Amino acid sequence: MAAGATAVTALATLLAGPAAGTAGAAEPERLVIDLATDTGAFHGGASGSLYGVYGDGVPSRNLIEGMGLRTVSTKAQDGPQHPGADALEMLPPFVDSGGKDVYIYMTDIYRGFPYQWPGADGPARLADFQEKIRKQVAQVRTMGAYKDHVVYVPFNEPEGNMFGTGAWSYDKVSWLDDPQHFFTAWKDTYRLIKDLDPEARIAGPNTSILYDQIKGFLRYAKANDVVPDVMTWHELSSPAKVRTSVATYRRWEKEIGVGPLPINVNEYGHNYHLSVPGQVVQWVSAIEESKIDADLAYWNIDGNLNDSAVEANKGNGQWWLFHAYAQMSGHTVEVTAPHPNQQYTLQGVATLDEDKKQSRALFGGQSGAADVVFRNIDPALFGTTVRATVQEIPWTGQVGDSAQPLRLSDREVTVGADGSVTLPMTGMNEMSAYQVILSPGGNGGEPAAPSVGWRRTYEAEDATYTGKGYSRNGPEGTPSDVGKFATSGAYNVGGLRTGSDGVLAFDVDVPRDGTYDLSVFANSYNLYDLVKEQGPTNVFLRVDGKDPRELRLPLGYKWVVWGHTDTTVELTAGTHRITLAARDPELGVTKGDAIIDKIDLALRDENVTAPAIYEAEYASLSGTRPDYSRPGASGPGTVPLAKGDSATFWVYAPGDGEATVSVDHLGGGRAGLSLNGERLAVPEVGGARKGTDRVRVFLSGGINKITVTGAARELALDRLRVAPSTGSPRTRVYQAEDGTVTGAAKVTDAYTFASNGKAVTDIGGGRGNALTFDVVAERPGRHALTIRYSNAEQAPATHYNPDPIARHADLSINGGATRRILFPTTFHFNNFWDLTVPVTLKKGANRLTFTAEELPDFDGDTYNQYDQRSPYAPVIDRIGVTPLAGR
């Protein structure tokens, strides 16, 4: 093996091993799942977010719903803490996407942290705050049924803010030492909110940890009839602390005679954990075991689901972990880890759904080998043979898009005489999470092939560097330094920058001739001086000194925020040298500054290029349950869809464009298709006999929601297969510089990475500053409008959070009412992304007009004074218009 390579070719191989208890002398560690021990209804509470939703579309509703986002903590409406994330603007899209509760940080109506509340003394400051509380409650009460999803959080970390010792405190005395003023303020504020809205729910005390003094707070609250409706605190510590803190608090409740109250640990995790499936699954297991709600901590930018969302509609590995978690149902079962409640070891969570006849397990946190043991498998549910599907959810960086989980194995396993099955896992990666889905076997379904084959990782710090400017950076985030970001191998390499002659060379060894996927994990800090000039840092790739090409590396909101740039290379069996260089004699020189973490190399074989498989029995089901008795299914079973029943699939697309969706069924009825909530104008699928119906659809890059709904009789739905395709429906592309600009809007050649080198800027600042396209639709109906844009506006921040602004455009079609579209940051105005929205067009000519103007506050009369709401639309490069579907 070449130096610096990490072999992962056998990563997490599933073997049809014997029953538990027959391993040899050197037994691997075991994660034991006892299906006979019910630990309570599945809760799903770990899918929460602090400041994770900016507004409608950032992130997309698909990401919110597909993640099973349950709770969001966010700022008071019109609060100046950060751009976006205004409670009453994100409330409707969140609730409409399946969300449960929005916790309003009422203190975030003030600027700064600690909060800068005005007043000559403590009583004056509290009086000002209570006036703002009156306004907030009045605004919430205008929201109709949505207000039932609001929980008020009157104070946030009061021991370090309003009732701490700092300059902005009530009286510079911590309530932890003398609680009288905080307790009185809590009582008066609680009663004020309840007087204004008797049905209001109030959460607190919202301390930074579970202090012992909270026991006294509970006693006071009970004595004065001001007990919170939800108990909240933060756990910026460890998963183990979640378990012990919840147990401690529950003991206090019993001693005092309150509750049990719902709990929301509304900040959890650190930079080292977030985005890393193998780390976050350990928090998830502790939170689910404790049956509480919890929100991922907000260390970076808002609107990206705490480093789960990429662009507007893509997910990274962390998003796919939460998606797998959201797919759990039924009740949790006992999971015994090899090192119980010890972080940075193998931990997991598992469920059993008797109605679905499925068990699901999520686990991770350890490299190497381990046995996953399912015990007490009920033969009445599963039979004597089970179908086991094993998937890997890899780490793809904070801003790195991820495809659906990798299928490592899918096969039938005989249940041992003791009612157990042992699944040996080998070559696990501690940064990945893993999922096992267990269902009845023995019905003849052909096992699916792995969706991944040979692959290896090569660390940049082990590669050979020649030239000037080299730096080996790290260690980055570690268990002892959780404030830093996770990095593969803990180190990365710098040196590829403006003026450099550096070359980073990876020596690789591949097993056979073929095409290989090459993924370069890299980062450039968008506000760093050398990066600001051009945006994405360009470097030059060669294989064995040949076939030069230019790569543009990912931008991030800070250093060591990882994404990946992907390409393919043709390799023959044996050794090769892959180089990344800062200059190329044929192509030019690097502009910017980049750090490199690693490269991943994977054989693009027939398993990788085959259509993606989405089994119906693993989908989100409504009104129905899987049927494992019908012969001829591809997997362990089918899903019967009577009229009104539905199966929803969360389908990945690498980019915005056409795909062919093959609907495999066993006949019996017909069903309609919907895409991202849009009923498709295509013939119903199904029929009397087994068959496949193919539908061509336009998928948005990232996550797409495809729903199959029964329409007549009962269709036996087997699966979906999805593959990229071209040709129909046809896309018409319109360059922005060919449109009509009015007012201050203008064509510019300042952005070199715009297509054709031109784009339109300065749209907005008033409706007269507009860009208009005249487009042609071949037929009437719903179309995908794909906008290639850039946006790098950023507001001044008060502390560690970068504050990028999601610009908006108001789109009018044929002179009709405007529709507001939000565009997340692209980190630089010379960095262009695609955003697709559905629109209705008439056959023939249509006029599309983009304008923008600054959004007022909730009252409609005042405006944000900290430049947190832009009056401008993004820079627009081009648009594409495509029919949404066809047959």
UniProtKB/TrEMBL annotation:
UniProt KW Hydrolase keyword: no
Top-level taxon: Bacteria
Alphabetized UniProt keyword annotations: Signal
InterPro entries hit by this protein: CBM6, Galactose-bd-like_sf, GH
Range of residues in the leader sequence: 1-25
The name this protein goes by in its record: Cellulosome protein
Species of provenance: Streptomyces ossamyceticus
Gene3D superfamilies on file: Galactose-binding domain-like, Glycosidases
Record flagged with keyword DNA-binding: no
Residue ranges constituting the CBM6 domain according to the UniProt record: 456-602, 732-882
